[in-house]
């Protein structure tokens, strides 16, 4: 398996509480929580777009 290069979200304020994203050579996007790096979610880019769109609609903003 290819080693992924993980990037931390710019919205993460603490090193131990962040979402990380990596792109595989085939274009699949991988998400993981920094507290549990062994567990990942692999998504096609359009599926990630749908997930984020739904989250924005359903989760009230705290700001």
From TrEMBL:
Q: Name one Pfam family in it.
A: DUF397
What name does the UniProt record give this protein? Answer: DUF397 domain-containing protein
DUF397 domain mapped to chain residues: 5-56
User: What organism does the UniProt record list as the source?
Assistant: Streptomyces apricus
Q: Could you name the domain of life of the organism this protein comes from? A: Bacteria
The family database entries (InterPro entries) matched by this protein are listed as: DUF397 (IPR007278)
